[in-house]
Design goal:
The structure holds three protein chains of three kinds.
Chain A lengths: L3 E9 L8 E8 L4 E5 L6 H8 L10 E9 L5 E3 L6 H10 E4 L10 H11 L5 H14 L3 H4 L12 H14 L4 E5 L7 H14 L4 E5 L3 H7 L2 E6 L2 E7 H6 L4 H7 L5
Parallel strand pairs in A: 3-8, 3-9, 6-7, 7-8
Antiparallel strand pairs in A: 1-2, 1-4, 4-5, 9-10
Chain B lengths: L1 H37 L2 H4 L3 E6 L21 H5 L5 H4 L18 E5 L2 H32 L2 H16 L2 H20 L6 H24 L4 H9 L4 H30 L2 H4 L19 H8 L5 H33 L1
Antiparallel strand pairs in B: 1-2
Chain C lengths: L1 H37 L15 H32 L3 H14 L3 H16 L4 H25 L3 H9 L4 H12 L1 H16 L26 H9 L4 H32 L1
Helix pairs in contact in C: 1-10, 2-3, 2-5, 2-8, 3-5, 4-5, 5-8, 6-7, 8-10, 9-10
Classes of the chains: A alpha/beta, B mainly alpha, C mainly alpha.
Chain lengths: 259, 334, 267
């Protein structure tokens, strides 16, 4: 049973006639990393942003089809049915997101990681401190920042900021993490650290990652979906996609003939 | 040709420098007689245009003005307070009419700036207290709550309102707003309170518009990451947008404050224009710009110099306020 | 609980926005009702001495127009200097000072012009009024010119220079043309701002009840006369003040909107 099951999903931006995503069928498997690849404008980010309905911050989008979410208690719900504010909040606490650019909030390192917990209602100081520590250790940042937790998060390097954002997302114990090109703004060393971290996180959460970087997809993902102009062209185990693609378009893309 | 063009551009740019320095020097030299005469006590002295006997310390005797209203009984100045004239004026402050230097050798006229200085600061304070929460509400509404098309329309409306000449706010305030406020809070229709509130209404659109601009500098992705954690709109505004755009917002508020300090016309209709320290918030008084607007034409000699002294003080205060807003906060915000 | 706080907060914000808009709607409706009820076309045909506004409207336009003739070239030249020629500290200082001057109290500028123009020339005059307005206008024009020129891509300048054009030719023929729309909008907004000014005119141009084109004498000003009229005890004077305010506001809003319209169309 996949944790997210996207069925016949179409998505249209407001004021646009043609859908940006057409009839997508894609499972996001539990405790695995699913990579979404494809040239710019293929709709991979649009698809990712549908999974936690972050699109809905801006009105007028049109959804069709289903995105079924099976949570830990095996209860199934269609996240496209969500209408109420409290349901949105619940959904986003279960499905975390990491963005292209690091997004440290204008507060201290500690406050950043504790933020999601605090708004989720965790008040107990020791519990907060414990969970922040766990999250920071989990994102391999604890050693670097444990002595300056009260300093502004803006002072961290880009790679550290991105790991902080991961810690912040992990701290609320989500079931899924969505990564939207998380390393495209980082240097190779920081990128390596983040990739290791993502693989490490697989044991606790299910992961979907959008990436421009095909080597990255082949290095870390278990499954890969190739998208082109709003269509899902091919979805398979990562090694099959890269070694033995079935579709001509997929082959052209991964061999660098376009994109 | 190139040289000439460049020289022209350079001299035009230098004109700004010359003008600002020129304003300062001109105000200072025109204020010089008053500065020499009264020194810094001017700032703390509440008496404006008061006759005191020479060589006797001012508190002992008060000689009533001998030089009664001539051309100085300005219709402009008195018109707005006409109805309340007799109740308002306490005995010894009666000689608020501006007169020329007295010829009588045994007395001299002294001028103190405390009343207009206090009036300026208090009206600005009232305006700020009134306008700040509303302007923040409007800014939040425009930046975060309203759908884009509504936000655009309302935003343009607000900006247009910021362009309406201030004299219109003053007229509206005097004839429509002040009577209601006076009914609600008692006191006079022309008072610190009504002047401050109308000033507040006037700076409201300006403050809301520039605060919105500051809030809009918050990157969308930062807001998205907070929403992605399950934050509510209120939490995103409180924890992300305000902290992020804090310096810009404070800078905007101070800029609005600078505008309020120097505003003449919106206040002139409503403050009452009398040199009396207000005891209550509903009392009439005067501010620096209004003192200048209503008394400049009739003043001469030391009286005119004292008005320039006030102008210099206003110029320095607003220069300082604007510099703080521009260079500390708004530069940092960029 | 979080959701309730959220709702309350959003409600408060919308409520305060409504309060703010209500105030502004109140002012505008007052202005339109009072203004329109006292408005008639005879106001454009008679001078103030005969109960009309002709001389005042013409006078205000001349003051603002003359101020523009003085202020726009100076402001643009200064803006060009800051953006195109100025290197280093001096241009930055001028930019900062201009920003400060933009927010200087207008009454203080009136007092300055009084001291340097009115007193030496022996009396209030149209020239003095126009100079005061020009001083108000210059920093606004500098600011727009500076901002708009900064939006012109550097490659455009380099391309011009590479063709062998001299720098001033490039600035006049290419850079200014590229930034034309933005600069024009800024100038229109600046004009809308100074035409509604009262304080700097109070003791520089004063006002006059008669039609006048003589800039060496006290000069008719719509705004200054509004202030005088509004403070008259007679109802009829106040009505005239409302009509004048109405005309002034419509004028300001039209100029302002056309400025926005130009930019929008261009986009």
């Amino acid at each position: 049973m996949p944790v997210l099951n996207i069925k016949k999903f179409s998505f249209t931006y407001p004021g646009v006639e043609h859908p940006s995503l057409k009839n997508i069928n894609l499972p996001i498997k539990r405790h695995a990393i699913t990579a979404l690849i494809g040239p710019s404008g293929c709709g991979k980010s649009t698809l990712l942003r549908s999974m936690n309905r972050i699109h809905d911050l801006y009105p007028g989008n049109k959804y069709e089809g289903k995105i079924e979410f099976t949570d830990q208690d095996k209860s199934v719900s269609d996240i496209l049915e969500i209408k109420k504010e409290n349901e949105f909040i619940e959904l986003r606490q279960k499905i975390g997101m990491i963005f292209q650019k690091p997004t440290p909030f204008p507060m201290s390192i500690f406050e950043n990681v504790a933020y999601g917990l605090k708004i989720a209602g965790v008040k107990n100081k020791t519990e907060l401190a414990d969970r922040v520590e766990v999250a920071l250790k989990g994102s391999a940042l604890w050693k670097e920042v444990h002595d300056r937790l009260d300093k502004s998060a803006m002072g961290l390097s880009g790679g550290q900021q991105q790991r902080l954002c991961i810690a912040r997302a992990v701290a609320v114990k989500p079931e899924i993490l969505l990564f939207d090109e998380p390393t495209s703004a980082l240097d190779p060393i920081s990128t390596g650290a983040i990739e290791e971290l993502i693989v490490e996180l697989k044991k606790d959460v299910s992961i979907a990652i959008v990436t421009h970087n095909m080597q990255q997809a082949s290095r870390i993902s278990d499954f890969t979906a190739f998208m082109y102009l709003g269509d899902l062209i091919e979805f398979d185990k990562t090694e099959n996609i890269f070694l033995n693609p079935k579709e001509k378009k997929t082959e052209d893309y991964i061999t660098g003939r376009f994109g | 040709m190139e040289k000439i063009f460049q020289k022209l551009a350079l001299s035009s740019a230098s004109l700004v420098f010359v003008l600002l320095v020129g304003i300062f020097i001109t105000l200072y030299s025109a204020a010089k007689p008053a500065i020499d005469e009264f020194g810094f006590d001017f700032i703390t002295n509440p008496d404006w245009n008061k006759e005191v006997p020479i060589e006797i310390s001012s508190s002992t005797a008060v000689t009533p003005s001998t030089n009664m209203s001539d051309k100085a009984s300005s219709e402009v100045k008195d018109a707005s307070i006409e109805d309340e004239d007799d109740m308002m004026l306490d005995d010894e402050d009666d000689d608020m009419m501006l007169d020329d230097e007295d010829d009588d050798v045994t007395t001299k006229t002294i001028y103190g700036g405390l009343v207009p200085i206090v009036g300026t600061l208090l009206t600005t304070l009232i305006a700020l207290v009134f306008a700040l929460p509303i302007a923040m509400g409007i800014a939040v509404f425009l930046a975060e709550i309203a759908p884009k098309n509504i936000s655009n329309v309302v935003g343009i409306a607000i900006e247009l309102l910021a362009a309406i000449p201030s004299i219109i706010f003053g007229m509206w305030g005097l004839y429509y707003f002040a009577p209601i406020i006076a009914d609600m809070f008692g006191g006079y229709q022309v008072s610190l309170l009504t002047a401050g509130l109308v000033l507040g209404v006037m700076i409201l659109p300006f403050m809301a518009a520039i605060t919105r601009d500051s809030m809009n500098t918050t990157p969308a992705v930062l807001k998205e990451s907070a929403y992605a954690l399950g934050a509510t709109k209120f939490e995103v505004i409180k924890d992300i947008i305000f902290p992020y755009s804090k310096v810009g917002i404070i800078g905007s508020i101070i800029l609005a404050l600078g505008r309020a300090l120097g505003e003449t016309m919106a206040v002139a209709f409503l403050i009452g224009s009398i040199f009396v320290l207000p005891q209550k918030i509903t009392d009439p008084t005067i501010s620096i710009p209004v003192a200048m607007a209503n008394n400049f034409g009739e003043a001469s000699g030391l009286g005119e110099s004292a008005l320039f002294y006030l102008a210099l003080i206003l110029f320095i205060i607003s220069f300082a306020v604007i510099s703080i807003a521009k260079f500390y906060f708004l530069k940092k915000a960029k | 609980m979080r959701l309730i706080i959220n709702k309350i907060f959003l409600g408060l914000s919308i409520f305060s926005a409504l309060i703010g808009l209500a105030f502004l709607a109140w002012i505008l409706t007052t202005l339109f009702i009072k203004g329109l009820s006292s408005f008639h076309f005879g106001l454009f045909l008679n001078d103030l001495i005969d109960g009309g506004l002709r001389n005042l409207i013409v006078g205000q336009m001349i003051l603002a127009g003359l101020a523009s003739i003085i202020g726009i070239p100076l402001g643009m030249a200064a803006g060009i200097y800051i953006q195109e020629y100025g290197r280093g500290k001096y241009a930055d200082v001028i930019r900062d000072l201009s920003d400060i001057m933009m927010s200087a109290p207008s009454i203080v500028i009136g007092a300055f012009v009084y001291a340097v123009v009115v007193v030496p020339t022996g009396g209030t005059s149209g020239f003095a009024g126009a100079i005061a307005l020009a001083i108000m206008m210059i920093p606004v024009v500098i600011n727009t010119t500076d901002n708009m020129l900064s939006l012109v891509p550097r490659e455009l300048r380099e391309a011009g220079i590479a063709l062998g054009a001299s720098k001033y030719k490039v600035i006049i023929d290419i850079v200014i043309k590229a930034a034309k729309v933005g600069i024009m909008t800024g100038i229109l907004l600046a004009f809308a701002r100074i035409i509604g000014e009262t304080a700097p005119l109070l003791f520089t141009s004063e006002t006059s009840n008669y039609f006048s084109l003589d800039l060496t004498e006290s000069f008719p000003s719509l705004t200054v006369s509004i202030y005088d009229l509004a403070n008259e005890p007679e109802e009829s004077s106040r009505d005239l003040a409302w009509a004048a305010s109405f005309i002034l506001t419509v004028l300001v809003l039209i100029i302002n909107l056309s400025g926005r319209f130009i930019t929008r169309n261009k986009k």
